[in-house]
Amino acid sequence: MKKLFAGAVLGLAAVAASAGGMESLEAFVKGVKSGRAEFTQTVTAPPKDGQESRAKVSTGSFEFQRPGRFRFDYKKPFVQSIVADGETLWLYDADLNQVTQRKQAQALGSTPAALIAAAPDLRALQADFTLEAAPERDGLQWVKATPKSKDGQLQSVQVGFQGDALSALEILDSFGQRSVLKFGKVEVNPSLPASTFQFKVPSGADLVRQ
Q1: What is the mean pLDDT of each run of 10 residues along the chain (210 residues)?
Q2: Among candidates 193, 150, 190, 142, which has minimal Cα distance to 166?
Q3: Sign (positive/negative) of CA torsion 82, 198, 209, 79?
Q4: Which among 127, 130, 39, 20 has a CA at the least distance from the CA of 80?
Q5: Which of 27, 54, 67, 129 is the residue whose CA sits 20 to 30 A from 115?
Q6: Measured between alpha carbons, how far is residue 40 from residues 43, 55, 84, 97, 170 in Å?
Q7: Model-level pTM?
Q8: Cα distance between residue 65 and residue 52, in whole Å
């Protein structure tokens, strides 16, 4: 269950409304250099053997600073942290007392985190994703991003904006698992200390390098 939450993060029609989504994405990437928000993430696996699929919900906080620095802190129901410091991607599982360390350049690529936090501009996004406007729904403007690389586990990400403000991510992986992140209490361009994106391996934790 815990891997569902973290993996979903790593692993993000009216013509006029659709155009608004692309404009919102461009404005967001261009104008929002740092951010802070709370999130609720709902992960739904595809049904098996005729059984209804069950949703698993987690909550936490999210911070980022372009280019390439972000932090997801999951608080409920499991404590986990995903931290990118610009060079290394760290994943900490408190229950297992285990830290996984990866090279950030290899781990991000075509991921939801790259969409909303890592890319410095729209051109960088278009190098990894095919971007297209999607119909307006739920009061939001949407953009669908499809990874150009077929090697990963990500099938598509839809990014929802309310004006130029990031509001939601809908992630579909190649296994049919769907993850929806809804953001609240969003702060745009806050001043974030460098320590926000520094990670120190907790004493006694197992370190796994990948």
Answers
A1: 51 41 90 94 86 88 92 94 93 95 78 76 86 92 89 86 90 90 95 95 93
A2: 142
A3: negative
A4: 39
A5: 54
A6: 10, 12, 20, 24, 12
A7: 0.82
A8: 39
